[in-house]
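S., here's the first fold you wanted:
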Amino acid sequence: SWMTGIRYCRQLIEQRQQVVLCNDSFWGPVRPLKDLIKRLHQCTADVVGLTDNLMYEPHLQSPFLMFNKRAISCPEFWTFWGNIQCWPNKRSIVKNYEVGLPVLLKKEGMELESIYSNNANGNTYHAEWKSLIENQNFPFIKRSLLRGNPHKIDISDWRAVVYKGNKPLARQIEDQLEDIQQP
């Protein structure tokens, strides 16, 4: 888990003054990572996310977060990770952790920045998936969009969009989706 990894690597994180946390809710890279890396290097915020969301409270969405020197030096950052607990449902996890950590750090005076959205209302990874990839070179596609498509977004051309940037990945996604659909 992130909590264990962060505690285990605390000395290294404090030494490097930066840590990026990302999870496996994406497939990628759909487009080359060089644009993302360039955007991250240009960003001077204390906490950087790929996208933001206004749901509950304004926050950075959690699949990819970069914490820089001021955030890592903040005692509340480490207290947050030390107090992680299990919650009975995803909504509680989102409210307490995905929303909770950026809100906590903002209260501590940290500057937060989203590099692919600004005051998004809802799940940008679903609603704006195609625009993110084609217009902003966003390097990922959300697994839940293609696996379940809970918001019934038009994803009919996802193969062509992914294939254009990463042919082998498009085939891997197709294979994984087929495996899921087989009983």
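And the second, which I think is the more interesting of the pair:
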Amino acid sequence: MPKEVKGVGVLVVRNNKILLGLRIGAHGADTWSPPGGKPKNAEESPGETAERELGEETGLKVYAMKQGPICTNYFEELDEVHRSMFVEAVTSSAYEPEVREPHKCKEWRWFDWYSLPENLFPPFKSLVEMGYIPRGITKKKNTA
């Protein structure tokens, strides 16, 4: 039976773009992912995890947040089922993200939601494929 792992992905949108980091390491190496991670303990809420992880990874501070969907992915190489809750976070536009954990993330970059790179971290890819669009991203108009 695979181990269940809970995590939180932090969706930061600014100027109609989403913040993604290029992952380093064995798990999800060379894929783009929003900031995030696992709770420190069973008592840490998803919001607290989002706030802590965003600060640790980028130096950005959360001013407001909203819970988004949960995506479930099986990682065969780890024999783990990851349940990733996504949280939309508002940060100050006066600051840019910094690489604060260079052993985990090579760089942070802002991407147009409709021109995302192909190499997405599986939980984030699941979110995109389900058609979820975070607040702050302008929905495409139907041209039919």
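Why I say that: Residues 46-58 form the longest helix (13 residues). The mean pLDDT is 93.

Talk tomorrow,
H.
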